[in-house]
């Protein structure tokens, strides 16, 4: 079974402003249709794929997906989809949104977008958020790495900030999105340190040299087991992500260096991420 730990729910005309829509064309190869339909997602993923679905909240960047929309979407396919709530802690009322999304809507994790929302995730002002997540077993999916949004401060996307969070909350499960590209080395340093901190490989396969180089670093540091599979749908699909990983795994090594471990790549594709994140079917 494949577990996709990073997919989105976007309703194209509802959830982001014109600036976000226009700048999303920088993601890769021009503008992407960001409207999500389950039938399209399922048609581009292997049968039986289990999927984490997130929305996103970042007022600074013009993105705001209502948690109720995520809960409704995953509720129509509960055998396949697991929903996360989203928090923008720069906005008033986020504590109420956290409790409502978890306790009333039944969402099972938290998506944070520090760079998009413009906050330092290591700031101790957000300790109540992390303490709540740790206490209730809610894993975090945190955007780390670069972005296409011009108003998002790159400093707050650096993986090093989550190192502080993990030290203060060692039982909190976290996934650093996109292997924090192009800061993969820093990401690897963080996930190697902490038992419950992982990185996903979503939205990387369409930059093949960078992905090959990143996975070589993963191999050199011995942290294959800390990588989780993700797609970042609708920016790409599960099928394309799997094929992209396998294609990279077939690339011969640089003369004098071993190639990528193809068995490790296959294990990554089939990682039991729900178990690792405490999200096994209830």
From TrEMBL:
Q: Where is the signal peptide?
A: none
Which segments constitute the Amidohydrolase-related domain?
Answer: 3-273
Q: Which UniProt keywords apply?
A: Hydrolase, Lyase
Q: Which domain of life is it from?
A: Bacteria
Q: Recorded GO terms, molecular function?
A: carboxy-lyase activity; hydrolase activity
**Name of a matching Pfam family:** Amidohydro_2
Q: Which residues form a coiled coil?
A: none
Q: Which InterPro entries match?
A: ACMSD, Amidohydro-rel, Metal_Hydrolase
Q: What is this protein called?
A: Putative amidohydrolase
Q: What is the lineage of its organism?
A: Bacteria, Bacillati, Actinomycetota, Actinomycetes, Kitasatosporales
């Amino acid at each position: 079974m494949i577990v996709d730990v990073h997919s989105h729910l976007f309703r194209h005309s509802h959830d982001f402003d014109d600036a976000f829509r226009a700048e999303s064309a920088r993601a890769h190869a021009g503008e992407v249709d960001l409207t999500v339909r389950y039938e399209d997602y399922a048609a581009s993923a292997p049968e039986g794929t289990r999927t984490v679905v997130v929305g996103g909240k970042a007022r600074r960047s013009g993105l705001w997906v209502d948690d109720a929309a995520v809960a409704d979407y995953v509720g129509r396919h509960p055998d396949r989809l697991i929903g996360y709530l989203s928090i923008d802690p720069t906005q008033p009322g986020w504590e109420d949104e956290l409790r409502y999304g978890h306790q009333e809507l039944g969402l099972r994790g938290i998506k944070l977008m520090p760079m998009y929302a413009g906050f330092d995730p290591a700031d101790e002002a957000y300790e109540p958020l992390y303490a709540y997540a740790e206490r209730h077993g809610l894993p975090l999916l945190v955007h780390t790495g670069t972005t296409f949004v011009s108003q998002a401060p790159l400093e707050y996307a650096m993986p090093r900030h989550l190192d502080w969070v993990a030290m203060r909350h060692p039982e909190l499960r976290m996934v650093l999105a996109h292997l924090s590209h192009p800061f993969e080395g820093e990401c690897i340093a963080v996930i190697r340190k902490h038992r419950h901190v992982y990185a996903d490989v979503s939205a990387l396969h369409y930059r093949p040299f960078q992905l090959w180089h990143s996975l070589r670093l993963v191999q050199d540091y011995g942290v294959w087991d800390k990588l989780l599979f993700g797609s970042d749908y609708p920016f790409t699909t599960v099928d394309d992500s799997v094929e992209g990983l396998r294609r990279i795994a077939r690339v011969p090594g640089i003369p004098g260096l071993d190639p990528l471990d193809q068995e490790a790549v296959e294990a990554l594709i089939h990682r039991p991420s729900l178990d690792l994140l405490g999200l096994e079917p209830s």
